[in-house]
Every structure is written in C-alpha cells, then in structure tokens.
Amino acid sequence: MFSLAAKNPSILKQYVDSFKWSDMLHNLTFAVIDILLISIFFLIIKVIGQIIINRLFGRYLQKQKKISPKREGTLKSISANTYNYILIFFWLYSILSIIGIPVGSLLAGAGLVTVALGLGAQGLANDIITGFFILFEHQIDVGDFVVLDTITGTVSEIGLRSTQIRGVDDSLNFVPNRYITNICNMSKDRLKAEINIRVNPDSPIQQIIDIVKDVNAKNIPNTQGIIDEPQLLGTVDLGDGTIAVKEWIPCTDTEKFNVQFKFLQLYLEAIKDAGIILPNNKLITPIPQK
Questions:
Q1: Could you give the CA distance from residue 74 to residue 77 in angstroms, rounded to a whole number?
Q2: Which molecular function terms from Gene Ontology are attached (predicted)?
C-alpha cells in the first residue's frame, strides 16, 4: 500500500481529502462544549445536593434528640458518598453518550457483565454490602476510637467502598470495607480506665491501697464521666518483670483518658507525700545464680 501511494501520491491525497475536516472540527467543538456544560451542570447539582443533605440531617438531628452527633455524622457521610457515586455514574454515562459511545449497547453486550465481575466488581459489591452492615448494625460511627487489626485511630469517614481511619500518628488510613472483619470499638458508651501503679516487692502495699481508696473517696464524687464504683484489683504481675497495684474505674468512653490521667497523677502525688518510694523504671527481678 505504501509503495503504491509513493508511486501515485494522488491516492493518499484523495484519501486525506475525503475527510470532511470542517464537519469534524464542528462536531469536536460542539462535543467539547457539551462536555463542559454537562460537567458544570453536574457540579452545580453536587453542590445543591450537599446543601440539601446538610439541611436534612440538621433538621433530623433537631427532631431526633436521642441520636448522637457521631451517629449523625456517620449517616451524613454515607449519604454524601452514595450521592456522589450516583452523580459520577450519570456524569460518565452522559460523557460517553456525547462522545458517541453506545453505553446501553455495551452494557447489554454478551459477556461484558462477566468481564466486569472478573475485573473486580465482585470485590466492590462486597465492600458495599459490608459497609451497609457496618452502618446499620452500629458497629462504628464517625468519631469512634477503634482498633482494626494493626490500625488504631479515630474513624474520620465511612463510605460505601472504604472506611477512613485517622491513626494515632495522624496518618490517614483507607481500609476497604470487605477487609474489616474484627473491630475493637473503644467508644461504645462504657469503658474502664485502667490504672497501674508500679511498686517494689518491699513496698507497703496495704498502705498504697489505703491511699488509693482515700484519693477515690475525695475525688470520685466531683469527677465527670465516672459511672460506677472503682474496682481495686490489688497487686498483680504485669508479665514483664514488674508488679503493680491495678485499678479499673468504669467511665464513659469520652472521659476515659481524662479519668485515667487525673487519678494516676493524684495517686502518685499522694504516695509521694506519704514518703513511699516507687520504682523509676521497670523492675526486673534478677535470676539467682547457683
């Protein structure tokens, strides 16, 4: 073909001239304009939808006074994600239609659905189904402090496909919903503030326990978040070569760390005022040599 075109350039020229360049440029210009207009339209629809979602949830929260802010944030997050996914689908459908790609015919084509499932649509379906179970079973909400396998942090967003966890080191982790199999939610109304006071083997344990009880009697009545009497477990082996006086204080999930920090400080100050010396570091009991 190329040798024929080289011998007879008129063939190539006739082929190029057969294109209706003015019509092609005309169609391309209108297609670009249509794409810009449809994109602006969907952008406006997205903004309006976000405003409507925020107002609807604002009114819903006012009427349903029992719903927590975390739950409201979770429902708003999942609704916004669903709305955005639907908009993206119809935007892509409109763009392909403007270009001239018969989307409907492609979707109805034989084997296309099977190919799509084979390329990962099945995993996407699992993500969506798992996301709905997490939402409706109230397993986690936006703002909860959770442990997901090796990730520890605060839930920042729950989507149809993935859940975002803001780690304790401020990293943002995207976890596909289908991989969320074991959730340790540390923000479900009731927790125990665990306090360990490390002691020496020859420390006056009973005196330390009496000091803890005295501090509790003076401070628990006016401390916010404590919902039950402390559980003083006595002396325990922490398993790392140290012994400690352990106590659990039942409290609300939002006040756990405040209670833990406050009472540990109060215990240590009272024990120091009593003249009792506590170990500075882990106490490793040496193995006697024979």
A1: 5
A2: mechanosensitive monoatomic ion channel activity
**The pairing of beta strand 190-199 with beta strand 231-237:** unpaired
3-state secondary structure of 232: strand
102 and 130 inside one domain: no
The model scores a pTM over 0.70: no
C-alpha torsion sign, points 140, 128, 130, 52: positive
**Same domain? 45 vs 71:** yes
17 and 90 belong to one structural domain: yes
159 and 194 belong to one structural domain: no
C-alpha distances in angstroms, 178 versus 162, 187, 228?
8, 22, 37
Owning domain of residue 144? 111-188
Report the 10 Å Cβ neighbour count for 9. 9
Domain-located, residue 147: yes
User: How far is the CA of 168 from the CAs of 123, 164, 172, 180, in angstroms?
Assistant: 28, 13, 9, 18
| pLDDT by 10s per residue, the chain, length 290 | 445 445 555 665 665 566 566 666 777 787 788 888 888 998 998 888 888 877 777 665 556 555 566 666 667 777 787 788 788 888 888 888 877 776 666 555 545 555 555 555 566 677 777 777 777 777 888 888 888 878 888 888 887 788 889 988 888 999 888 888 888 887 766 778 889 999 988 889 899 999 999 999 999 988 888 888 888 888 888 877 788 999 988 888 778 888 999 999 999 999 999 999 888 755 444 444 44
Q: Are residues 14 and 100 in the same domain?
A: yes
17: exposed, middle or buried (Cβ count in 10 Å: 0-12, 13-18, 19+): exposed
